[in-house]
Design goal:
This protein is of the alpha+beta class. It has helices spanning about 20-30, 50-65, 85-100; strands at about 1-10, 35-40, 45-50, 70-80. The protein contains three helices and four strands; from the N terminus they run βαββαβα. This is Thiamine-binding protein domain-containing protein.
Length: about 100
């Protein structure tokens, strides 16, 4: 099952800047080799269910280390046989916007 997952996680009470914690999670995502897109409020990852869920778990472990509490949100779009969803979903909307401009 192919999935697009949007992941957002951070330690609660870790101060004003969460960038170092986000960077730890992003290193895990990059090391996975899965396609991803970093956004201002979360990171989208594309892959098969098991590999994406393994990366989500590893991101949690990386951010949780040394922290008392971690906040995590996960949104997923599951679709058999899809590939290139990271660009296709936004590309379809951008194409419609160009048509109506």
């Amino acid at each position: 099952m192919s999935v697009l997952a949007e992941l957002s996680l951070f330690p609660v009470g870790a101060g004003a800047s969460l960038a170092p914690h986000v960077a730890r999670a992003l290193r895990v995502i990059e090391a996975s080799g899965l396609p991803y897109e970093l956004g201002p409020m979360g990171t989208c990852i594309e892959g098969e269910w098991d590999e994406v869920m393994a990366v989500v778990g590893a991101c949690y472990q990386a951010v949780q280390e040394g922290q008392e509490r971690v906040y995590l949100t996960l949104k997923m779009d599951c679709r058999p046989g899809r590939s290139g969803g990271l660009s296709a979903k936004t590309g379809a909307v951008r194409a419609l916007l160009k048509e109506s401009a």
